[in-house]
């Protein structure tokens, strides 16, 4: 049975939402969950909310790493935190995947140095799934690596393609390069060089994608350095929040608009669902030897449930194995 | 009387929309307009649309620079294009400002080398105004300089502050640095160094602004390198288009939703107006010795009218003089 290790103390709504989401996962997905964190507090939270922990293992961890702490402290003074202990279990094959809504920086550092990168992968990349007009687009890197080299973007393309193919069932995922124009001469040295490398890589490269095209499903995998990717990711989220807020105040302005809104309930619900990150799970930390999912910091129980479901799918579909096999085949190619 | 030089052959709707917008400007703003472009074609377009060219001067230019041509060709093989001739008139004091909806790249190169930069300004920056929750935010650089140095970002902050103060009447414009986190240690070398310089600069620096915060009016001037700024600008536009499209299909889905929409007509109109770039004018090319406005490529007559109005305001309020005075005062400070 697949066992997902979950950081019970990551995110704004921990541990209550984590526990609730984990229970939903155990009941609905036919998996085991190992919750990591202060055992006493987990039991207290479950009791307070009348939740049964049947089917859930608990592994004690004394402390929690705060999002304001230095990410590298997960390797030193915060070795005993729930995230570090959870990643240790993952490394020791005590589980198949790890889910945390805690500090992104600490998760990147911890995953890289505790659970380790896949052999041959230069850098792990944070890979959120952005809702677009048709389906979802995976963005790599969403912020794990502030500075990137062109060959890293090629690996991001390969890893994103593996996910979209295996988990999202897209037979030949289209890979786009985030850039400021369509022509291959556009961008900085990074993009110009990455364009050349992507053109020769065994991915379905469809060229540069401009900021304006992002919501319109022009590609399935979008690669960028982690600085630009993070700006784009957060702006995407921010615009979603802004429009949702505008729509809400538009519809609740007065009796007349409220009446109008009553005719649109279903459509508004569909749109909200579409833009809701928690529907799809979290961001995958691609390039680690086992599946690691970064759940959103403000995840509720449903979001945790979906992040655990996403982790299980990555395990079931063998995403990391697919990436490994590709890296191996390339290496042989280079040696020949 | 203020005289605005207008490129009659820039943008998708040239020359018809340019002529119509120019006539609106002459009739409503108490200004003169000098239209630059093929004289015969301008007269033919005016005649076809039954428009009188009273109050408008025409200066002939033989050709047009295409957006797919190399920007630097404006200085060489395309010296006779409407944009180049218009910028020459600006340089020769035959007008107070220049408006074009043509190639951004050519406009940056042409403005820099024909009309020239303000003394002491390292680089001109494209400065669009993004609609935000309260009012507008000026983004510099929206794409004129793919690579930037930290001291350029400080000049962008000064130029944007001058505009927001003089034209938008904000007494102490808040300057933000686009970045991937709130702390001053976040970002690349560029942002870390720019943060330090901005903290010491005579602007109202409010710190880093993350992508998520962009629509929520956290600052009045947002500085970034031209690569990141262009990604953000276009994503901002793209998200606006995406939501407008989603809203439209939501409201026109069936009889029930159409009925609901009929109660919301005013609110939807207000929102569209808010998100409509053409309401505010174009992007200012800041740092040139005289006012240059880049109108959006898809500008209609109203957008051209507003871009011309914006150019007049920059002239009336002495935006370039304000920037010059600042650069002079800084230089004296350094010499002392």
What's the structural blueprint in terms of helices and strands?
The structure is a homodimer of 336-residue chains.
Chain A: E1 3-7, H1 16-29, E2 32-36, H2 39-48, E3 56-59, H3 82-91, E4 97-100, H4 104-116, E5 125-127, E6 129-131, E7 136-140, H5 150-166, E8 174-178, H6 189-200, E9 204-209, E10 221-223, H7 226-251, H8 255-262, H9 265-275, E11 283-286, E12 291-294, H10 301-317, H11 319-335
Parallel strand pairs in A: 1-2, 1-4, 2-3, 4-12, 7-10, 8-9, 8-10
Antiparallel strand pairs in A: 5-11, 6-7, 11-12
Helix pairs in contact in A: 1-10, 3-4, 5-6, 5-11
What's this, in brief?
In chain A, helix 5 packs across helix 11. Chain A is built from 11 helices and 12 strands. In chain A, strands 3-2-1-4-12-11-5 form a 7-stranded mixed beta sheet, sandwiched between helices.
Q: In words, what does this structure look like?
A:
Chain A is α/β, with parallel strands linked by helices. Chain A has eleven helices and twelve strands. Chain A has a seven-stranded mixed β-sheet, with helices on both faces. The mean pLDDT of chain A is 94.
| Helix percentage range of chain A | 40-55%
| Number of separate strands of chain A | 12
Shape of chain A: globular
Major sheet size, sense and barrel closure of chain A: 7 strands, mixed
The helix-and-strand class of chain A reads alpha/beta
State the separation between the terminal residues of chain A, measured CA to CA.
Answer: 40 Å
**Tally the helices of chain A: what do you get?**
11
